[in-house]
Design goal:
Layout lengths: L9 E2 L18 H16 L8 E19 L2 E19 L22 H5 L1 E3 L5 H29 L20 E3 L6 E2 L1 H13 L9 E17 L4 E18 L5 E10 L8 H19 L2 E2 L3 E7 L3 H9 L31 E5 L5 E2 L2 E2 L16 E5 L2 E2 L19 E2 L7 E2 L3 E6 L2 E2 L1 H15 L3 E13 L9 E12 L5 E5 L1 E5 L1 H6 L1 E5 L3 E9 L2 E9 L2 E10 L20
Parallel strand pairs: 5-8, 10-23, 11-21, 19-27, 20-25
Antiparallel strand pairs: 1-6, 2-3, 2-7, 3-4, 7-8, 8-9, 11-28, 12-15, 12-19, 13-14, 15-16, 17-18, 21-22, 22-23, 22-24, 24-28, 25-28, 26-27
Helix pairs in contact: 1-3
């Protein structure tokens, strides 16, 4: 994970000048020229007779080069890449106080809008042809302007039925325009060496007849992001996203599907794992998966549990983090979990929570949620969200809330979506840390008090999901990879499989009894209304007094009839 691989290189952005050239300062950049010229034309002249002109226009263009490789069972199965330019346009009519923003999220089916899908994912020309790019911008701006007018008028009509809210927040906040033109860096990937590494690592699974499928993937992408707005913001920034992931699958003798995955995510080539690290991880993953095949199937359970660091980051991300995204406090379709809780206790007082996307690493571990400027052109900021259990703030994009009027640099989106408030690198820290052994003893004491035969330890979590909307029940659902029972009688641990952590977020958060002196980092991607974005979650191990586990959807099926060809004695 700490070593950069070098050798024969594949250079992405090979047609771009290196730092120090005229293009690195924005001069002679055809994309900037086209965006600027068409933006100026739209600002000065775009207006439909008898209707309002736009008060805000933003152009975002993301220039992406990617490379991807995959190997399985010692052989390369994929080796390629892609190149495209994604275009996003935002047009607003009205004013900062009251515009076409909908507090109902604007999810209204319009049978007349048969262009909606076509304009939801628009590609810009790959050739640096300003006329061709301006043509795309012209069409998309025209579509978004007409859509904004229709939404603005529709909002006025729906206001007839709504109860007036004197404390309704503004629709869009003003910011200080900024200009920043970064040099366009080249992402260098050693394709041939990585292909050989993937072959070698994936071949290590050949010796495991009970593992039915396995893959190791390399993905690298370089993104040059442009943002120009009618407020005079003018940005060109760079980001590298790289990952290596390995996965393996099998089935228990009872037909239960089992899988494990190990993932490394980084923004720096030197943050990628080396071949030794990968080899060790592959052997460890295979060994653990074989242990899971014969592990006891978990039965439904309620009672004390420890969620270990690393896994606890996913837990807090799902149970708490999404409910601290400010735009959810004003959308009518949301559950408004903490909307009117500012200044009140919402989690145990020994816990503090903040989000800081400006940090590149913590305790030697890189933070994948790092960024410098959000997708609305606002500098990233550290935001103290909860202090000693008391709610102090929300994550904000340029959509204000009742209590917070300005963005705090958390407006995020993928290449096509409109930005909303999202997490970056979320930290949970404690004022009263316990050692892991102390928490384990405390958990067993709680089990004795409740007459429980055992407690649970969640060592690794694969993924999670949560419902924050008012449609349906506010729920939490987390899929763990590694769960162990800890028996009260003698303290021995037993690996189990087939468990799924469920519950209502508020109840689970309130039942946290202690937090550890350790910090674990989870790096991944989060999908929400504005698409998939890189995130990190940093949290200690936590003891939860009451947690609920259900048996996961087992999907039992018979495994392969014949043994693998390499392990068939009859061949």
């Amino acid at each position: 994970m700490k070593k950069c691989l070098a050798g024969v290189v594949l250079v992405l952005f090979s047609s771009w000048p290196l730092p120090g050239s005229a293009a690195s300062t924005g001069q002679n950049d055809p994309i900037l020229q086209a965006l600027s010229s068409e933006l100026s034309r739209s600002v000065n002249r775009l207006r439909l007779d008898k209707y309002e002109a736009p008060y805000f226009i933003a152009y975002r263009l993301t220039d992406i080069h990617s490379v991807n490789m995959r190997a399985s069972y010692g052989a390369l199965t994929t080796s390629g890449g892609d190149r495209y330019r994604a275009l996003a346009v935002d047009v607003r009519v009205g004013n900062y106080v009251d515009d076409n923003t909908s507090d109902d999220e604007g999810f209204y089916y319009n049978p007349r809008d048969d262009d909606a899908y076509s304009y939801s994912q628009r590609y810009a020309p790959l050739d640096n042809d300003t006329a061709a790019l301006r043509q795309e911008l012209w069409l998309m701006t025209d579509y978004r302007y007409k859509s904004a007018l229709e939404a603005f008028i529709g909002e006025r009509g729906r206001d007839i039925q709504k109860v007036e809210k004197p404390d309704r927040p503004d629709d869009f906040s003003k910011i200080q325009p900024m200009e920043r033109i970064d040099p366009v860096d080249s992402l260098v990937v050693d394709r041939k060496r990585w292909e050989n590494i993937l072959r070698a690592i994936s071949a290590r699974f050949k010796s495991q007849p009970l593992i039915h499928a396995s893959d190791i993937d390399f993905m690298g992408a370089s993104q040059v992001r442009y943002l120009l707005t009618s407020e005079s913001t003018r940005l060109r920034t760079n980001q590298f996203n790289l990952s290596v992931s390995m996965s393996a699958e099998t089935r228990g003798d009872d037909g239960m599907p089992l899988s494990l995955e190990t993932v490394w995510k980084t923004h720096k080539p030197q943050g990628l794992p080396d071949s030794v690290t990968l080899a060790r991880a592959a052997d460890s993953l295979a060994g653990l998966l074989l242990q899971l095949r014969v592990a006891t199937v978990m039965e439904p359970y309620t009672g004390p549990a420890i969620i270990k660091h690393g896994a606890s980051g996913v837990f807090f991300h799902e149970a708490l983090g999404h409910r601290l995204e400010g735009h959810r406090t004003r959308m009518e379709s949301e559950g408004h979990t903490f909307k009117d809780k500012m200044g009140q206790k919402i989690i145990p007082t020994f816990l503090n929570v903040y989000d800081d996307p400006t940090l590149t690493s913590v305790a030697g571990s890189e933070l994948y949620g790092y960024y410098q400027i959000d997708d609305e052109g606002v500098p990233a900021q550290r935001v103290s969200l909860i202090e000693h259990g008391i709610l102090k703030n929300f994550l904000l994009s340029r959509m204000p809330t009742k209590d917070i009027k300005v963005s705090n640099g958390h407006g995020r989106a993928d290449m096509w979506s409109d930005a909303v408030s999202r997490m970056g690198s979320t930290f949970v820290v404690t004022d009263s840390p316990l050692t892991y052994d102390q928490m384990r003893s405390k958990m067993l004491d709680e089990c004795r008090k409740e007459g429980k035969e055992y407690g649970l330890i969640f060592e690794d979590i694969a993924s999670g999901e949560t419902n924050t909307s008012s449609a349906g029940v506010q729920t939490l659902r987390i899929s763990p990879r590694v769960v162990k029972k800890v028996y009260v009688s003698d303290g021995h641990e037993e690996l189990v499989r087939g468990a799924e952590l469920i519950g209502t977020p508020l109840a689970v958060l309130e039942s946290i009894q202690a937090a550890g002196d350790d910090l674990g980092v989870f790096n991944g991607v989060c999908g929400a209304e504005s698409g998939w974005v890189p995130v990190s979650a940093v949290a200690p191990s936590v003891l939860v007094g009451e947690i609920e586990v259900q048996r996961m959807d087992r999907n039992l099926k018979r495994g392969p009839i014949l043994p693998p060809p390499l392990h068939d004695p009859e061949k």
